[in-house]
Write a structure and sequence with these properties.
The structure holds two protein chains of two kinds.
Chain A (H helix, E strand, L loop, with lengths): L12 E6 L6 H10 L3 E7 L19 H5 L5 E4 L6 H10 L3 E4 L7 H14 L3 E3 L7 H12 L5 E10 L19 H17 L3 E9 L9 E8 L4 E5 L12 E9 L2 E5 L5 E4 L8 E4 L4 H14 L8 H20 L3 E2 L6
Parallel strand pairs in A: 1-2, 1-3, 3-4, 4-5, 6-9
Antiparallel strand pairs in A: 6-10, 7-8, 7-14, 8-9, 10-11, 12-13
Helix pairs in contact in A: 3-4, 4-8, 5-6, 6-8
Chain B lengths: L4 E5 L3 H12 L4 E5 L3 H11 L2 E3 L2 H7 L2 E4 L6 H10 L3 E5 L6 H14 L3 E4 L6 H11 L6 E10 L12 H4 L1 H18 L2 E10 L4 E9 L4 E8 L7 E8 L2 E6 L30 H15 L7 H20 L3 E2 L1
Helix pairs in contact in B: 1-9, 4-5, 5-10, 6-8, 8-10
The chains are: A alpha/beta, B alpha/beta.
Bound molecules: nicotinamide-adenine-dinucleotide.
Chain lengths: ~350, ~325
């Protein structure tokens, strides 16, 4: 599957990357380079910010203004979360469709301003939730929707990783990221639960862990209740040690009346012992969901379709993450008001 | 080798487990009583024990009474044995309320007999080793714990276990193990929140505990799986290390292709060839009784775990976080 679209006579899509802070930036670039019909214009940080990173064969622009002058059809926003709003507003005004990293903003207000900007400019906004494009999770969703396992009794979800403060310090910066482990990891599982059951999260209880000397929480456990009454947990902790064989994992167990689904989308791996690493590492041999996500985004741009993952998906998941902070402060359950858009 | 004469009350799943363990410990005298004389006779036959059709006579003839009765009968049985002046080993949970538990402890003290509550998880080798490492500081300051214990509904989900008034419900009966473990390794709990889902026969619960140290614990617990399936796991994280273990890991010996395994009426974890925690627990209790040394798990530990379990259950019922 190498072509983004099957439609005949398509034009070349010009794609740009705005902001380079996110860990996925490099992966996106290497995928984009392999896609026919895609011209990667280049990358840029915000105006006046020199990039400390370079990517082989990719043009680095002096700033976002210079890059947007090249009239990209689509942009991918990979900056620190707090700058998403500024970059989305700039890209929307330049008429580019947007794929934005998660969480989409650090505040609900910023998120709403981003939506308004895209709406006014008539461009699409897609939230980057790659796990929706993972084959294992697509099968899981299908199994649940078929209902052959009976009623769901509950779900346990974990999205653990190593603490990013040593390699990508901004993820642990309360200003740049808007928080710590909760901001980083809550949204993926939240989105999957919403997507599996086509429903919203109604209530959130959270307990967070702040070790001494850390400016953000490094561990967190949430118990959320969906509109359909289902209770599900999310462990978003940065609780794997630095030398863990992989960045971490996303796993869930869906306990149903007639069986349990044990889901580990990253299970397909080899254990690699090499001289470059002091400890063995796990190397994936599964299809990369980021690639499928980029293909789906570009196809929606090419064919003028609505984005396969929406702004609302980003907004609702951000609401849940922010509610976790409130709950941990009050020590009680938080109810989410599902305002319509 | 112990010289204790052991009398067991009950002939259900735990009575069988204890009987097997006492046999492995080669006790000189072993007898049991149950209201169901038939199952008692069957069990006694299998493991080589005497059968009594009268509880009072059994209590009279032994040194220690091992109570393997449903939880709602623990109070009455402990009181009766204490009055008879015999030491007691009693299955967990100690009782259905902390008040009952305290009364039982008080009666044993007054009667001058010792009471051991069989919190067996502390004798499971992987849990024990993990706790040793955590308590020795190998993980640094504990931050986040995950504990899992999910099996199938005991007796098909229709016995006394299914009646909260008799068993305390899944939280008091089964989550109690992991609550005690969390208390053991991460210390006192100040706040709990829990959710519980039921069908006619199944129960499934998740709880979040906040420890006074700031550590947090997630516990998953269920009588939810299909018959025969039982899974447990632990994941302990401190600022200096991580311990992972899951019962999904292959055992120390595996027979392939899989042959059909015997499925008991009550879900119990698979036991490694190397060490049976039930035997090690009873060996410990017998040793303490014979030497007068203190039990590793005290009656206060049993009441403390019950107290947190009751808070978890009350949170599950009210949908509110509960302070302990
Ligand atoms: N430590 C563990 O791993 C573990 C596991 C299961 C149960 N338990 C505990 O052990 C105790 C016994 O549980 P079990 O699994 O052996 O139960 P079970 O239902 O298998 O056996 C109960 C026994 O009590 C007898 N009995 C006497 N009076 C009774 C009455 N009025 N109603 C019902 N039964 C009566 C039954 O005949 C039966 O022999 C309980 O307190 C339980 O919580 C502990």
């Amino acid at each position: 599957m190498n072509a983004p679209v099957n439609a005949p006579a398509r034009r070349v899509l010009k794609v740009a990357i705005l902001g380079l802070a996110h860990v996925h930036t490099e992966g996106y670039i290497s995928i984009l380079k392999t896609l026919p019909g895609v011209e990667l214009l280049g990358c840029a940080e915000r105006d006046g910010i020199a990039s400390s990173r370079t990517f082989e064969g990719v043009k680095m622009f002096s700033g976002v203004t210079a890059l947007l002058e090249q009239r990209p059809d689509a942009v991918i926003i990979c900056s620190e979360t707090v700058f998403h709003r500024e970059l989305v507003e700039r890209a929307a005004r330049a008429g580019a469709h947007i794929l934005c990293e998660k969480p989409i903003a650090t505040t609900l207000e910023d998120a709403r301003i981003m939506q308004d900007a895209c709406h006014t400019a008539g461009v699409n906004f897609m939230t980057a939730f790659p796990m929706r494009f993972d084959i294992t999770l697509q099968h899981t969703r299908q199994t649940l929707q078929e209902g052959s396992l009976g009623a769901v009794l509950g779900i346990v979800g974990v999205n653990h990783s190593i603490n990013p403060s040593s390699h990508d310090a901004w993820f642990a910066d309360p200003i740049l990221a808007g928080g710590g482990a909760v901001m980083d990891h809550t949204v993926h599982l939240t989105d999957l639960y919403r997507w599996f059951f086509k429903t919203e999260i109604l209530e959130v209880y959270a307990a967070l862990g702040h070790p001494l000397g850390s400016s953000v929480e490094t561990s967190g456990i949430l118990l959320v209740t969906l509109e359909n009454g289902l209770h599900a947990s999310i462990d978003c902790s940065w609780s794997r040690p630095a030398h863990y064989p992989r960045w971490g994992h996303l796993k869930m167990e869906i306990v149903c009346e007639k069986g349990v689904l044990v889901v580990d989308p990253f299970a397909d791996h080899l254990t690699l012992f090499d001289t470059a690493n002091p400890a063995p590492t796990w190397v994936s041999f599964a299809p990369d969901p980021n690639r499928a996500m980029l293909l789906a985004f570009l196809e929606s741009v090419q064919k003028h379709l609505p984005p396969p993952v929406t702004w609302l998906d980003g907004y609702r998941t951000l609401q849940v993450a922010l509610s976790a902070y409130t709950s941990s402060q009050t020590g009680q359950l938080e109810r989410i008001t599902s305002q319509e858009f | 080798m112990t010289h204790l004469r052991v009398g067991i009350l009950g002939s259900g799943a735990m009575a069988q487990t204890h009987l097997r363990a006492w046999r492995a410990l080669d006790v000189p005298w072993l007898a049991l009583h149950d209201r169901n004389l038939e199952t008692a006779t069957d069990l006694a036959h299998t493991y080589g024990a005497k059968v009594y059709d009268n509880a009072a006579e059994l209590i009279r003839d032994c040194d220690v009474v091992d109570i393997c009765l449903p939880t709602f009968l623990h109070l009455e049985a402990v009181m009766q044995v204490a009055l008879a002046g015999k030491h007691i080993i009693c299955e967990k949970p100690i009782a259905l309320s902390t008040k009952e538990g305290m009364a039982m402890i008080q009666s044993c003290e007054t009667a001058g007999v010792r009471l051991y509550i069989a919190m067996v998880l502390r004798f499971f080798p992987m849990y024990r080793r993990a706790a040793e490492l955590a308590l020795a500081g190998k993980l640094g300051t504990l931050q986040v714990l995950r504990l899992k214990r999910v099996g199938f509904p005991p007796h098909g989900g229709t016995s006394w276990f299914a009646d909260d008034a008799l068993s305390g419900g899944i939280v008091v009966d089964m989550m109690l193990h992991d609550i005690d473990y969390a208390l053991w390794v991460a210390g006192d709990v100040v706040r709990v929140f829990a959710r519980l889902t039921r069908t006619t026969t199944q129960q499934y619960a998740q709880a979040i505990l906040t420890h006074s140290s700031g550590a947090i614990t997630h516990i998953e617990c269920g009588w939810a799986y299909q018959n025969g399936l039982f899974r447990t796991a632990l994941d302990l994280v401190g600022d200096a290390g991580l311990l992972e273990w899951s019962s999904d890991a292959p055992p120390s010996s595996l027979r392939l292709p899989n042959t059909v395994e015997m499925i008991g009426a009550v879900p119990l974890p698979a036991i490694s060839a190397a060490s049976d925690p039930y035997t090690m627990q009873l060996q410990h209790a017998a040793h303490c009784l014979e030497t007068g040394s203190p039990f590793e798990v005290t009656t206060q530990d049993a009441v403390r775990a019950l107290n947190v379990a009751l808070a978890v259950r009350s949170s599950a019922l009210s949908g509110r976080a509960v302070m302990v």
